[in-house]
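Quick start: read one record
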Amino acid sequence: MRRPLLILAALAAAVALFALCLAPASLADARLAAITEGAVHLTDAEGTLWNAHGIITSGAARIPIAWRIDAWPLLRGEFHLRLVRGDGGSAAMPKGDVAIGRNSWQLRDLDATIPAAFIAAAAGWSAALAGGDVAINAAFVEWTPQAARGDAQIQWRGAWITAPGSAEATALGDITATLRGSTDRLSGPVSNAGGDLAVQGIVTLGAQSGVQLSLVLTPRRADDRNLARALLIIGVPEGDGWRVEWRLPPR
């Protein structure tokens, strides 16, 4: 009896593995929507869960994406995802390697450009609140509960926002944040060039704390009363500018 049972178990495992290998990539949409509470979806997916391409959407913003999943790391309880551009792939497609273990995650050779409107919609805000493109580059970043290490640079190019109580967008120029691993989080300075506001401050990213921003926003024109009124709604006066504290908790 033992030998036939082992054969049946092996056949069942082979059938299950074969079915999983053929599972359509469109099944990933349900998982993605569940993780983001319906804010982000995968559309126009072609291929299998292991090797596919499609479009990531949030609001009206769309990002083309292609990926491959390595099967063998799954046996060790690890998830390895490769974001690829392939032959003739658009530069708008993100690329890089993502590895998620039981108590860690890693990013390698990440290069992605994301519309600010996509990020706003994914966070549950109106996409009309922000514009420009956010470029993310990281050669290596690793996080564990004990420590974070590595470096990453984030550039928000052609940035603009519509402040509460204002009917007009406020230009922020090009904003740059340089992050470095420290203790259990990534943090670093934020500054900008150009725009209606000077931006100076610190950004912190942590798996437990989410995203935290502490900025001083200073109008480049002291006589811009409309902008000063808008800043007073979201911050408190500090020197010639306004201190703004903002936090996006982890989902």
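The radius of gyration is 22 Å.
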